[in-house]
Amino acid sequence: MPTQAHMTANAVNDVNEAVAAMAANKKVVDGFVAAVNERRIDDFPDFLARDVIDHNKIIHGEEDRPGAAFEGFRQQLAAFGEFVVVADELIAEGDAVVARLTVSGVHTGAHPRMPEPTHRAFSVEQIWVFTLREGRIAEIRAVSDRLGMFLQLGWDWPTAD
Predict the structure, then answer these.
(1) What's the 3-state SS for 62-128?
(2) Residue pLDDT, tens place only, 5-17
């Protein structure tokens, strides 16, 4: 029968392992944000699972299939000559990392919502929830101030999606 000290040591080890796993998950998200900011699209597979599921679609018209987020991010970066994601806060629990972000950019390229660049800037707050599996982002859920973004960019609010 295990002693109280042995059970306590196991519990401490379990907590240390959980804390280390959450720190590793936050590091993956930080790395992904850096890759986005540095436009290192070829490095995205280091951070995103091949079959990553984007529950909210990064960009209008993104296909509804696992892995489509790669093209969604590529299109988003192509539409904004300046595009910066600042992780204001990262909170990890279990296999999830919640990121409170400030996202800004200048619309300089074609975007499915607005093919003609407006050359206007935007800055909005977003909340992203990343689910990680095997050291990569496997699922993405996001809430963003799209109305604020559309208003700042001079885009028409869509009547249907």
Answers:
(1) CCCCCCCHHHHHHHHHHHEEEEEEEEEEEEEECCEEEEEEEEEEEECCCECCECCCCCCEEEEEEEE
(2) 665 878 788 788 9
